[in-house]
């Protein structure tokens, strides 16, 4: 950490969106509206799972943790984006930039592993229903969640330890509305080709590998169900389709941000908006609208909240 103080650069400038006042106003309304939806939707899912005993099963516990990660991932960037839209000085201090990058990759890594765990949970429920309660018991569920956190922290730390010690003494303009490892590394006063490759391998290849693993696993589940009963195929597909939509929404922007060989500022900002603003509000909508038990539990919780207010 002492090497941080040797860096000449003490702050970075987030270039953000160089748009007209009308576009900035639109982005302000769009981001604010979606961020309120992110907070309300994801917290409502978390509280519903916590307070409804009918939802104390691995599937819904994992869903609540996914909602927390969506909320955390969005909160690392969206409030700053909204604040910077109408400020002339879009400056972020060095340490704040490092903290933002670290938590983006912690929450992103945890969410990536949680989606794998949720795929495993659905595989067990669909393909091995008689052994589901034995395999996905509460202890196993907690261990998988802890493992997701450990892997997410390791994923972030393995990149953070290299970037925090880089010398920054020249340009300080980040070509986006948030700090991220690939963009900040390019500002270092040294040859960072190898380090950029490591970051790409860590984030990009891991993202692509996880994405294809999940798609193949869902395909394998459907094939397995079809072999046993063609009647259950449509039911399994309906159950898994929500998971597949969430996986595509989460991984497609990540692949474009970390793997796309021809990045541009406008394209990167677009996919970042999708990743941080759109996807976190769509996830709770997809899971709640396509899940009967979740909708019933939310109605029950809403009635309890309304009745308690009336009593007050």
Strand content: under 5%
Fourth-tier CATH superfamily name? Rhodopsin 7-helix transmembrane proteins
Q: What is the β-strand count?
A: 3
CATH-derived architecture: Up-down Bundle
What topology, given as strand order, has the largest sheet? 2-1-3
Write down the secondary-structure element order.
HEHHHEHHHEHHHHH
Gross geometry: globular
Helix share, percent? over 70%
Largest sheet: 3 strands, mixed
Provide the domain count. Answer: 1
The average pLDDT is 85
User: What separation lies between the terminal Cα atoms?
Assistant: 53 Å
In the CATH hierarchy, the third-tier topology is known as Rhopdopsin 7-helix transmembrane proteins
The low-confidence parts are 1-5
CATH top level class name: Mainly Alpha
Overall structural class, as computed from helix and strand content, comes to: mainly alpha
Q: What count of helical segments does DSSP give?
A: 12
Radius of gyration: 21 Å
